[in-house]
Amino acid sequence: MDEFFETAAAEGSDEEEEADDIDEETGEVIRKSRKSKARDGDLGDSSEEEEDDDEEEARRIREGFIVDDPEEDEEGRERRRETWKRRREEKEVEDEHLDEEDLELIGVTQPDDDRVQAQQSKFKRLKRGHREERPASEARGVEDIFSDDDEGADGAAAGRGRAFDYQGDDLGDFIEEDEFPDEERGGVDEDMGIRAPKRAGYAEIQNLKDSGLGEVALEDMRHAFGDGDEFGWALAAEAENNEETLDPDKPLELKDVFEPSQLIEKMLTEEDNIIRMTDVPERFQLARKPYKDLTQLSKEQMEARNAEEAAWIATYMYPHKRNLGSSLREPFEQAIEKVLHFMNVEDFEPPFIFQNRKDYLIHSEQIPNSPDPNNPNAPKYTIRAEKLLSQDDLWTIVEHDLKFRTFDEKRDAIHKSLERLKDVLPDFNDAVFDDLIPLAAQIDDLQDVQDYLNFQYSQQLREHNVEQAEVNGTQKRARGTRSVWDKVRAGPAYHLVRAFGIAADAIAKNAERGGNRTYTEDSDKRPDDLADTLVQEPEFKTGEDVLTAGKALFVEEMVMSPRIRRFLRKVFYEQLVFDVHRTDKGLKQIDEDHPYYEFKYLRSQEIKNIFDQPELFLRMLKAEGEGLVEVNVRLPREKTVKSECYRAIESDSFSEVVDAWNALRRECVDVAFAKLHKIIARGVKDTIKNECENRIGADCRKAYNEKLDQAAYRPTGMVLGTIPRVLALSNGAGNRGDAVCWAYMEENGRVQETGKFVELRPGNPEKFIEDGKDIAAFVELVERRKPDVVAVSGWSVETRNLYKDMKTIIEARQLMGAPYEDQDEDRERQDPLDVVIVNDEVARLYQTSKRAEAEFPIMPPLTRYCIALARYMQDPLKEYASLGRDIVSISFESNQQLIPDEKLLKYLETSMVDMVNLVGVDINEAVADAYTGNLLQYVCGLGQRKAAQMIKTINLNGGEVVSRGDLVGDVDRQIRQAVSPTVWTNCASFVFVDYNDVEADGPEADPLDNTRIHPEDYDLARKIAADALEMDEEDVKGEVDENGMSAVVRRLIKEEQQDRVNDLVLEEYAQQLDSQMKQRKRATLETIRAELQNAYEELRHNFAHLSSDQVFTQLTGETRESLQEGMIVPVSVNRTFGDHIEVKLDCGIIGTVAETEYPEDVYRDQREARSVWTLHQTVRGKLKFLNRKGFEAELTFRDVELRKPFKRHLLDHDLEEWDDELEARDKKEARKAVDPASGRAQRVIKHPLFRPFNGAQAVEFLGPLARGDCVIRPSSKGPDHLAVTWKVHEGVFQHIDVLELDKENEFSVGRTLRIGGGGAGKGWTYSDLDELIVLHVRAMARKVEEMMGDERFQAGSRQQTEQWLTTYTEANPRRSMYAFCLNPKYPGYFSLCFKAGQNAPLANWLVKVIPNAFELKGNKYPDMRALKNGFKVVFQNMGPGAGAGVSVVRR
C-alpha cells in the first residue's frame, strides 16, 4: 500500500502525524504501550450500603404520602411511631456533630484513621450502577445501534438513510444509483429499517427466561425488582378515573391539538390571551411580569411609593443631566414623580406621555420685566422654559422603575423575614437592620443585609418555617441540618469568638469614623491558652481545633457584616483601578496584530476611563472569558485601607496578652479582606459591565434612530412626504455574465413590472465599441413608466460601475424626471432623472427570507432584492419594521456584538416605537396591507398580541374604521371593541383615519381623527377652530346641530382658513386651563395649532443619502479599521503593462503598482512584469494610498517595505497605564525563543496565519477554532521547510510538510512551495502561502465537509461503524452495506468500511482527501457520488475475496 503516501515532503509524514508520539529531532515514531482499560473494583454490589437508606426512604414515603390502612392494628402503628421517633433523635444528635466537610470548612483537621472512616461513609447514598464503563470509542452493541445517547451532535448525520441494494448477496448489489426519486424515498427508508427501537426501560421479567440466567438468579431478581405488576392496581384506578371524568361533549381546545412550542410561537397560549385581554399596555405587561401588581395599593401608599421612587431615580439620572443647574434639582425630581404616576397609576407609555403630557416634562417660570415707560402695554414678565426630560429619559425611567420594583420587593422580603424572627424571638432587636435598611440605596446593599440575615439567624428562620407548616397542616418538612456556623456557635469555640472583644458591626463603625468609637475589650488569657480551656470532644480535640474554628467564624462574621461591606464597597468605587494581566495562553496568542493587544499590558484604568470607552472594558471581559487575560480589580491604597481596619479592631492597651490578641485580630482582618475583595470585585465588574452594555445599547439606539428618522426619497420640487415612483436595479455580485435585474414600483407600493438586462454597458465611439443591446429597452422602460428616481445597489465594486453607466445613459439619452413648479423662476422645470446608490442592508436580508418567498415565490432573489430597494426608497421605516427580530443582524455600532441580543433588541425596539408614534399609522391601511400592519405592534399601548387582536376585531366589524371612537366599540352601532379603554387612550392619537377615505360615511367621520390631536383634546381643538373663525356660541351650536361635533373644524378646512389659528394667543388659553381645570396644556395647544394647519405633517428628516465612506463599506465590506494604508494585503494580478501592473484586491478594488515599486531585483534587472508575474497570480503588496471615493489604490511590491510590519494605532497611555517593562521582557523572550529540537532560532514570517508554534502548540491553538482553520508554523526539518497544521475535525489535526524552493536567503519564504513529491506528476506546487492555503488547505477542508455531509458517513468510530454494518447484515442477510467514517489515527484519511453480506468478513479501505478530490486505490474521484460508484466498480473488478483485505497505511 505504498501508493497511499508520498516519499518526499508528504502529507501526514512521520514528523507531522499525531497518531503516535513523534520525536521532533529524529522524526522517529515513538510507539505507546496500550494500557488496560479494565480496572479492579469498578463494579461492586451496593445492596448492603443501600439497605438502610432504602428503608428510611420507604418509611418517609409511608409517613408523608401513603395513608395507613384503617384496619391495621394499633400496635403496629405505635411500633412505627417509636421507631421513627428514635431515628429522628439519632439524626438530631448526629446533626449536632461536625462532619468532615464542616471541619474542613472551618479549617479543623482530622486524624488519618477518622478521615478514612469518614470517606468510606461519605458517599453512602450514591447508588452505584451495574452497567460497565465503556469508552466512547468502543463499538456499541446490537441493542444500542439505534440509540441516540452516544451520537451527540453528530447523531443527525449518523442517523441518515443508508439504503442500497435490493438484489441479494452477490457482489453486483454494490452497483446502483445513490439517488432515489422523492416518491420512492419513503419506501426505501422503510425497507432500510432494521427494527424500530423500543422505549428505554427495564426488560420484562418474563422475557428474562431466555437470557441464560439460572433459576437462582431469576429468583433473586424477582425479590429485588418484583414481577412488574406491583403498581397495576394504581394504573387500573387511573384508567377507571379517566373513563369516569372523560366528557365527550367537552369542546376541543388548541392545547389539545398543537404542541406547546407551537402555541408559544404563535402566541396562542393562555398567558397570551390574558395579555390580549388585560387593559394595560402590552409592553408594560411583559416587562412587569416578574413583579408584584401595584394596583392593590391605596392612593396614599401609591403616592408615597412614587415619591420615594422618584427620589431614588433622580439620584441616578440627575448627575447625567449636565445642562440642568442646581436650582432645577427639585423640579427635575417632581417631573420624574409625575411621570411615574402616569406610568404606574394611569398606565401611560412613554410616547403618550411625550406627546400628550409634554407640559409636565418642562419647567417654566415667569421672569419679571423691567417697566418700559415708552411701552406701557409691554408684557410684565417673560416666560423661561427648561426641558427637564427628553423622550430617551422616559425610557430610562421605565428601566429604573423595573429596577426599583426589584429593590422594593427585596426590601419587603427582608421585612417579612424580620417579622417572622420577632415571632420566634420576642426580644429580638438587631440594630444592623434598623440602621442599614433605611440607608440601602441599591440592590447590593439589600443583598448584604439578606446575606447577614441568612448567616446570623438561619436556624431560627428554619424552625419558624417548620412550626408554621405544622400549624397550617401542610406537609411536614424534615428539620434541616444546621449549618456549620450554627454548630460552632452552639459549641465552646464561640466563647473564643466573643473573646475577640468587638463585634464585626462595631469594627465597621470605627472604620467609618461615624459616631462614638467602640473600644475593644481585652481578655485576661492569651488566645491559645483560652482555646486550650475550651477543648471538647469529639469536635474539638485540641486547642488548635478550637482556635481554628473560632478564627473561621470571626472571619465569616466580618465577611457577612453588611456595614463592613458597605464601607469597603464605597472605598472600592472611589479608589479602584483595573489591571489586565496576560495569561500564558494570551502571551502566545495575543501578538501585535491581535485586536486584544491594545489592552494586553494595560494597567491602572479608572472607572471614568472605562465609561469613556465602554467597548474596551467589554472586550477585556470577553478576552478574560477566552482565557487570554485576567481583569483584576486593585485598590492603589489597599495598605491604607487595611491600616484603618487594623486601628478599628485593635485594642489600645499594652501587654503580652493584648499583643497576641491584636496579632490574631490583624490576621483575621487579612483573611476577611481577601474574601471581601473577591466578593466586591465580582460585583463591581458585573455592575460596570452592565453599565458599559447599556452605553453601547444607547449608542445603537441612537444610530438606529438616525436610520429611522428619514422620510421617503423626495423628488425634486415635491413636498416632503411625497412617495416616489422607483425603478431599482442591481447586478448583485457583479460577476462576469451576471444579468442586471430590475423592478419598478408605483407610489402605492405595488410592483408593476420586473425584468432583467444582459447588456447594459454604454459603448465607446472612440474605441468603436457599440452600446449594449439592452440600453434601448432601458430607455423605453423609463419613458413608459416615468420613474421619479433610479435606485442602484449591490454588494460588489461592480455596482459602482453600474451606477456610472446609469448616469452616462441618462445624460446621453436626456431622460428626465417628473416636471415641477420652480417657485423662484415661476415656471415648470424638469431635471435629469436622479440616480441614487441605496442602503441595501435590509434588502440583503429580505431577498432570501421566507417572507420574500411567500410574497414573490416565482421571482429570483436578485429581483426580490430590487423590490426591497424600491420599498426602502418609499419608506425606510416600514422596511426596518418588517425585519422583526432579524434587526439585530444589521450593524449599528462596531461593538454591538459585545452585548446580548435580547438587550440590543430592547434598545432597538424603543427607537422603533418612538419613530412609529411620531409618524403615525393609517389604521385602515394597516388592516388592508400586512406590510403596513407591521407598524401597528409598535404603536403606543399595543404590541404583537394586541395589534393582531385589533386587526382581527376590525375585520369582524367590516374591515373599516370610520372614527377613532369605533376602536373602543359602540353597542348601538353593533361595533365590537378592538381595544380596551386604557390601551385606546394610549394609542388613539397615533393611529389616524384618512378623512378623505371616510368623509362620505356621514357625521361619524371626524377630520380631527386625521391629526395627532388626542380625542381628549378634541373639544379644545374645536374651540380654537371656532375662535379662529370668530364664531360665537350660537353660531357654533347651529353648525354643530346641523353637521355634527366637528362641523366647525370641517368648515375651517373647507374654507382654507387654517392659517388664522396663528393669530390666536395660546398663552391665554393655557392660563385659563391651568387656573380653572388644573390642566397644563401649553405644549398641547401648540400641537393643536400645528395639526389644524397641516394634519400629520411629515416630521422626519429628508431621505439620507449614503456618504462616500458608507458606499465604500457597502460595496467592499471594508471599513476604515479593516483596510488602512500601510497594511500588507494579498492581491491578484489583473493586467501587466510596460510601466505598471494592475492588480485587484480581495474586496474588488483595482490597484496599481508602479514600475518603481517592483521588488528591488526585478526593478534593478529591468525584467518585464509579464515574465515575473502571471495573470491571476496572487501576490502580497503593501497599501500605500487608498482613494475611498474613487475606489482606487496604489501598492508596492518592494521587499524593504514588505518587511516593515503594519502596526495599528494604539491608544495613547500615560506612563502608569501601560506595563512597558513586562512588554519589553515578553518581546525579548520571544526573540530569544529557539526550537528545542534543532537549537536554531525560530523563523518569523509576516503572514496573518503564521505562529511560532510547535506541533502540540498548534493543536492547542486550533482546538477551539472551526473545522478547516489552519496555522503556518516553523518545521523541524530545517530552514527550507514549513509546516501547515489544519483542523480536520474535533480532535483530529493534519500536519502538512511544505518544501521551500528558490529561497532568497535562510529566513525568506521560498518562491516555490511544494507539497508531496517523489516522482513525475506527483505533489502540488504553489507560488506563495496565500495560494497554498486557498488551493490546498481550503480545498481539502471542503472535501472533508462534503464527505461528512454525505448520507453514507457514520459519525462514530471505525469499530462502531463495523458494529453497525454487522447488525445491518444480520437483520438483512441478503444485502450488503458500506459506510465511511473518520480515521483519527491518520488525519486526512477516511475509512471505507464494507461487508458484502451476512457471512462476508468485515473489510475497510482507506480514502485519502486531496485538494478538490478523493483518492481510493490510486484513483482520484472529484466528488462523493463518483467516489461511491468508483468503489463499487473497483470492488466488483477485484473479484471474489476482494473484501478480505484490509488497507493499512505504511509509515
Automatic annotation (TrEMBL):
Q: What domain of life is recorded for the organism?
A: Eukaryota
- Region feature Disordered, mapped onto this chain: 1-193
Question: Residue limits of the Spt6-like S1/OB domain?
Answer: 1110-1199
One biological process term in Gene Ontology? transcription elongation-coupled chromatin remodeling
Q: Where is the composition biased (Low complexity)?
A: 1-11
Q: Where is the Spt6 acidic N-terminal domain?
A: 45-132
Tell me which residues make up the Transcription elongation factor Spt6 helix-hairpin-helix motif domain.
Answer: 885-993
Record domain Helix-turn-helix DNA-binding: where: 306-422
Q: Where's it mainly located?
A: nucleus
Q: Show the coiled coil region(s).
A: 1066-1109
Q: Which residues form the Transcription elongation factor Spt6 YqgF domain?
A: 721-883
Q: Which UniProt keywords apply?
A: Chromosome, Coiled coil, Elongation factor, Nucleus, Protein biosynthesis, SH2 domain, Transcription
Q: Where is the composition biased (Acidic residues)?
A: 12-27, 43-56, 66-75, 92-104, 167-182
Q: Supply the Pfam families for this chain.
A: HHH_7 (PF14635), HHH_9 (PF17674), HTH_44 (PF14641), SH2_2 (PF14633), SPT6_acidic (PF14632), Spt6_S1 (PF21710), Tex_central_region (PF22706), YqgF (PF14639)
Which residues fall in a compositionally biased region of kind Basic and acidic residues?
Answer: 76-91, 130-143
Homology family: Belongs to the SPT6 family.
Q: State its role.
A: Histone H3-H4 chaperone that plays a role in maintenance of chromatin structure during RNA polymerase II transcription elongation thereby repressing transcription initiation from cryptic promoters. Mediates the reassembly of nucleosomes onto the promoters of at least a selected set of genes during repression; the nucleosome reassembly is essential for transcriptional repression. Essential for viability.
The protein's name in its UniProt record: Transcription elongation factor Spt6
